[in-house]
C-alpha cells in the first residue's frame, strides 16, 4: 500500500518513475545508553518504516517533498547546510557526508513518506538517514558497504541534528533481520543475529505521546558524564578506554569519592552491559521470564540512576509491573518521552491495552498510542 501511495505522489509531482527504498524503525530489547560507551545493544528492526522514492536530475538541484508534513524543500548541491525546517536535515546530512567522502553527486528528486511515528523514540530519523544513504548509493552506483552507510548516518545526525548519538539506531535500521534481534558489539561492530522465539509473547509498545525538550541536551550531558568517569578511572587504570572496560570496583575506587552523581551514571552503564550479556543468554535459552525481569531492572536503573525517564514512562512501567501477562517492561531509547517496550502474553493484549489506555488518559491527561511490533528486515529496495 505504501509503495503504491508513494509512487503515485512521486509521479504526480515529478512525472517520472522512482527507485523506492524502505528503511525501518527499531526497538531495543535491552542495553540502553550502552552504545556510546563501547558496550552492547540488542535492537531489532520493526514493521514500521520510512520510504524514500528518488530519481536523478541532470542539474545540481535537490528537490524534496515530505508527505507527512506536506512540505517541499529545495536547494543545490553546492549549498548544503542544516535547515531550519527539521526533516530535510536527515537527507542533507547524508549528502554532506557523501560530499565529504569525495563523491561527485548529481541533483535528485525525492519524496519521503512512512509510518514510523515521529518523536516516539522508534528512530524515524535514523530510518530516514539510512533510506537516503541506501537510495543514493544504489542510484549513483557509489559501491558503499552497509557499515559505511551506517557510520555516515551517525555522523550526519551529529552534524545536522546536533545530537551525539551512538550507532545503535542506524545499525538496527540497516542490518535488521526478520524475527531476529541483533546483538551488536558497539566497539568492534561485530554482530550476531539472535532468533526471537517469543512464541505466544508479543512486543507491545506504549507511546507516551510526549517528547520532553530535555531529550537532546540531557543526552549529550550523559555522554559527557560517562566520559568524565572514564577520565578518572584512567588515572589509576590507563588501559581503560571506555565504560565497557570498567568494573564496579574501579568505580568505587576512582569515581565515588570525586562525584556521587557521575558514579551513579557510570554504575548504571557498567551494570547494564553485564545485564545485556546475561539477557542474550536468556533469549538463547528461551527464558523470556528471566529476560523480562532484567528489563524491569533496566527501567529502574534508567529512571533512578541514569535519570533519563519521565513521569509518563514511569507511570506506564509501574502500571504493568504486577500484571502476570506482562513479562517485562521498560522505557526504550534515549528517554524523556517516547515509548515503553513490553513483553506481553498474546491472549491478554486486548484487555491490557484497554486498561492502560484508560488509566493513562485519566492520570496523565494524555492519549496513549499502542503498537504491536513485528520484527522485520532492515533497509532494502522495494522498487528498483
Ligand atoms: C538514542 C540514541 C542511541 C542510543 C539510545 C539509548 O536512541 O540515538 O544511539 O544511545 O538513545 O540507548
Top keywords for this entry?
globular, 384 residues, six-stranded mixed beta sheet, 13 strands, binds alpha-D-galactopyranose, single chain
Would you mind describing this structure in some detail?
The model has no long low-confidence stretch (mean pLDDT 97). The strands form three sheets. Strands 5-4-6-3-1-13 form a six-stranded mixed beta sheet, sandwiched between helices. It has a four-stranded antiparallel beta sheet with strand order 10-11-9-12. A three-stranded antiparallel beta sheet has the order 2-7-8, sandwiched between helices. It is α+β, with helices and mostly antiparallel strands and 384 residues long. The protein starts with a helix and ends with a strand. The chain contains eleven helices and 13 strands. Strand 10 and strand 11 form a beta hairpin. The relative contact order is 0.17. Helix content is 43%, strand content 24%. It binds alpha-D-galactopyranose.
Amino acid at each position: 500500500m505504501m509503495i503504491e501511495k508513494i509512487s503515485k505522489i512521486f509521479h504526480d509531482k515529478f512525472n517520472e518513475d522512482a527507485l523506492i527504498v524502505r528503511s525501518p524503525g527499531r526497538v531495543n530489547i535491552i542495553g540502553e545508553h550502552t552504545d556510546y560507551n563501547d558496550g552492547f545493544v540488542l535492537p531489532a528492526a520493526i514493521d514500521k518504516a520510512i520510504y524514500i522514492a528518488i530519481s536523478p536530475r541532470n542539474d545540481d538541484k535537490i528537490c524534496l517533498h515530505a508527505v507527512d508534513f506536506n512540505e517541499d524543500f529545495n536547494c543545490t548541491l553546492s549549498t548544503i547546510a542544516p535547515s531550519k525546517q527539521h526533516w530535510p536535515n536527515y537527507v542533507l546530512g547524508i549528502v554532506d557526508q557523501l560530499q565529504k567522502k569525495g563523491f561527485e553527486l548529481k541533483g535528485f528528486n525525492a519524496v519521503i513518506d512512512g509510518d514510523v511515528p515521529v518523536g516516539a523514540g522508534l528512530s524515524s530519523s535514523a530510518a530516514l538517514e539510512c533510506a537516503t544513504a541506501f537510495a543514493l548509493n544504489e542510484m549513483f552506483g557509489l559501491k558503499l558497504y552497509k557499515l559505511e552507510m551506517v557510520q555516515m548516518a551517525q555522523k550526519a545526525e551529529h552534524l545536522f541534528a546536533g545530537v551525539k548519538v551512538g550507532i545503535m539506531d542506524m545499525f538496527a535500521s540497516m542490518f535488521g533481520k526478520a524475527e531476529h534481534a541483533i546483538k551488536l558489539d558497539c566497539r568492534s561492530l561485530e554482530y550476531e543475529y539472535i532468533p526471537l522465539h517469543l512464541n505466544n509473547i508479543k512486543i507491545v509498545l506504549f507511546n507516551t505521546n510526549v517528547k520532553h525538550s530535555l531529550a537532546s541536551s540531557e543526552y549529550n550531558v550523559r555522554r559527557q558524564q560517562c566520559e568524565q568517569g572514564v577520565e578518572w578511572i584512567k588515572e589509576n587504570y590507563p588501559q581503560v578506554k571506555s565504560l565497557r572496560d570498567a568494573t564496579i570496583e574501579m568505580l568505587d575506587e576512582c569515581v565515588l569519592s570525586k562525584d556521587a552523581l557521575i558514579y551513579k551514571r557510570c554504575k548504571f552503564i557498567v551494570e547494564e552491559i553485564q545485564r545485556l550479556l546475561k539477557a542474550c543468554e536468556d533469549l538463547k535459552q528461551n527464558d523470556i521470564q528471566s529476560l523480562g525481569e532484567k528489563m524491569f531492572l533496566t527501567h529502574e536503573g534508567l529512571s533512578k540512576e541514569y535519570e533519563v525517564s519521565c513521569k509518563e514512562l514511569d507511570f506506564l512501567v509501574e502500571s504493568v509491573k504486577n500484571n502476570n501477562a506482562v513479562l517485562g517492561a521498560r522505557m526504550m531509547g534515549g528517554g524523556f518521552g517516547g515509548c515503553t517496550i513490553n513483553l506481553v502474553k498474546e491472549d491478554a493484549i486486548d484487555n491490557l491495552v484497554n486498561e492502560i489506555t484508560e488509566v493513562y488518559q485519566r492520570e496523565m491527561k494524555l492519549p496513549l498510542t499502542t503498537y504491536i511490533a513485528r520484527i522485520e528486515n532492515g533497509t532494502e529496495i522495494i522498487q528498483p
